[in-house]
Write a structure and sequence with these properties.
Blueprint (H helix, E strand, L loop, with lengths): L6 E8 L4 H15 L4 E6 L3 H8 L4 E3 L10 H25 L1 E6 L2 H13 L4 E5 L6 H6 L5 E4 L11 E3 L11 H8 L7 E5 L6 H10 L6 E5 L5 H4 L8 E4 L4 H10 L2 E4 L5 H6 L4 E3 L9 H11 L3 E3 L7 H11 L2 H14 L4 H13 L5
Helix pairs in contact: 1-2, 1-14, 3-4, 6-9
């Protein structure tokens, strides 16, 4: 298919699904916009439809469908929606004629990325986990750059680049974050989240384990779970919320003594804040990638892993042991910061500008 004439200062970003995919893509968009590049987003109708316009970027919606491995009927429906989405993306990309396309993973990235490949547009993709997802495996042969958050064996050199995870802005110092949140430095503070949609087993374990500890807690229950848990009888020091915007969450991650979370790609955002973690991998994650992410953190001394099947007892044991050992927490925080450079968004922006043939002055 012929390549349309390109607008040399326009980049299209494809992002969709959960906030874990969309927020890093927005961080890259802001890095590009700060260099005088026009940025437009293409996505579906999930978190991106709200988060992207709120961040100030133009957003185009196209039909998209994920791959449902549990139901042949839903998988077929998703495949049809994906084909329709590729066709719609082809029309949009021909109309927009960007200098480059950046795909931030997931089904949205695959849908728009396939259209970009068909038009022979310069393509950059990003992988948030410790293995290439299905969409990125499809796109990798066509991509000029593949930006990795984790090191992936066999994906080194050439087009593969360890960029780190894009985060919205530089993490604040712990003292500054505590001051902004009015939390005394000497007070123990825990943050727990299971992703933007929530994680039922982790939420229920947290409510069983954390309130009796008598420490300050921020519990982000997720958009699906927050309403269900809102009626829980909790102490005044236990704050339960559905979701926080990225800039506010950053303050809490920096202020925390310990973060408890699933082991998706967002663990590297926590690591960039220099905060130790207890990670509970989601046992049904595709290709078991959350356990692989967790092993990487644990092997570098940045986290303790607890199996979902060992909740709530394993969570109680891990949290109590870590809170009783401040020196270990400090060393884990230092190790975490080494794993996740805070300039991932700028590194990816560099690669997009290079493949687009346009460098900022």
């Amino acid at each position: 298919m012929p390549t349309p004439p390109r607008k040399d200062r326009l980049v299209v970003i494809a992002a969709g699904g959960t906030a874990g995919h969309v927020v890093p893509a927005i961080a890259v968009g802001k890095a590009l916009a700060g260099r005088g590049v026009e940025v437009r987003f293409i996505g579906g109708r999930r978190a991106e439809r709200e988060l992207v316009p709120k961040a100030g970027f133009p957003f185009e919606e196209v039909p998209m469908g994920g791959l449902d491995r549990s139901s042949p009927l839903r998988a077929a429906n998703g495949a049809v929606r994906s084909l329709v989405g590729v066709a719609a993306s082809l029309r949009l990309l021909r109309q927009l004629a960007p200098a480059a396309v950046f795909c931030a993973g997931g089904y949205a990235g695959a849908t728009v990325g396939l259209a970009a490949a068909a038009l022979r547009l310069p393509l950059v993709i990003a992988e948030a986990d410790s293995h290439l997802g299905l969409g990125n495996r499809l796109l990798a042969p066509f991509a000029r750059r593949v930006c990795l958050a984790f090191p992936i064996p066999g994906r080194e050199g050439g087009k593969y680049l360890r960029s780190g995870r894009p985060i919205p802005h530089a993490p604040p110092a712990k003292e500054d974050a505590r001051r902004a949140l009015r939390i005394p430095l000497e007070e123990t503070y825990l943050v727990l989240f299971g992703g933007s949609l929530g994680a039922r087993s982790l939420n229920e374990a947290a409510l069983a384990v954390l309130p009796p500890l008598g420490v300050r807690v921020l519990h982000l229950a997720g958009l699906r779970e927050g309403d269900r848990l809102a009626a829980a009888d909790l102490p005044p020091t236990y704050r339960l919320e559905r979701f926080l915007p990225p800039e506010e969450l950053s303050l809490h991650l920096a202020a925390a003594d310990l973060v408890i979370c699933r082991a998706g790609g967002s663990v590297l955002e926590v690591a960039a804040h220099g905060t130790p973690m207890v990670v509970v991998p989601y046992p049904l994650a595709a290709a078991d990638h959350q356990r692989a992410n967790a092993r990487y953190l644990v092997s570098h001394g940045a986290a303790v892993a607890v199996e979902d099947s060992d909740l709530p007892e394993g969570l109680a044991r891990a949290v109590k042991e870590l809170l009783a050992d401040p020196n270990r927490l400090q060393q884990m925080g230092l190790a975490a910061r080494q794993l996740s450079p805070p300039d991932g968004a700028q590194r990816i922006a560099d690669q997009i500008l290079e493949v687009a043939g346009w460098r900022d002055r």
